[in-house]
């Protein structure tokens, strides 16, 4: 199942903040990490059910994959064939706020 991948406004802000934070010490590393997150997101559209259900939420439509210490939380909208990225969340922050 191939789905269109979209980023929610909050996810865009998360991604920008992550890149800004890493770029403060190493601008190239910030760009590389941001690009890696985007590549991971693009792959989710091909196999949206491959991520695990977010354990704190227990909702089968809200899943996550990991990239390093970051949780990429997304909502599967089957009827529309859309995967909506809702958050990029550092695992040290605890439970993701959706």
Task: Please characterize this protein's 3D structure.
A five-stranded mixed beta sheet has the order 1-5-4-3-2. The protein has helices spanning 9-23, 27-44; strands at 4-7, 52-53, 62-67, 70-77, 82-90. Helix 1 runs antiparallel to helix 2. The protein is built from two helices and five strands, in the order E-H-H-E-E-E-E. It is of the alpha+beta class and 98 residues long. It is globular. It has a single domain (4-93), classed as 2-Layer Sandwich (YaeB-like fold), CATH 3.30.2310.20. The mean pLDDT is 92.
Order of helices and strands: EHHEEEE
Please list the strands of the largest sheet in the order they lie side by side.
1-5-4-3-2
Largest sheet: 5 strands, mixed
Work out the strand percent. 25-35%
CATH architecture assignment name: 2-Layer Sandwich
* Separation, N- and C-terminal Cα atoms: 25 Å
CATH first level: Alpha Beta
Which value, in Å, is the CA radius of gyration?
13 Å
CATH superfamily label: RelE-like
Summarize the structure.
It contains two helices and five strands. The protein is α+β, with helices and mostly antiparallel strands and 98 residues long. It has one domain (4-93): YaeB-like fold, CATH 3.30.2310.
């Amino acid at each position: 199942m191939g789905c269109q991948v979209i980023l929610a406004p909050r996810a865009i802000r998360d991604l920008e903040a992550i890149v800004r934070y890493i770029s403060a010490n190493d601008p190239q590393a910030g760009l590389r990490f941001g690009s890696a997150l985007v590549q991971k997101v693009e792959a989710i559209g091909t196999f949206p059910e491959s991520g695990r259900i977010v354990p704190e939420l227990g909702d089968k439509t809200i899943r996550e994959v990991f990239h390093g210490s970051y949780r990429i939380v997304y909502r599967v909208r089957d009827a529309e064939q859309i995967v909506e990225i809702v958050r990029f969340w550092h695992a040290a922050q605890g439970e993701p706020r959706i």
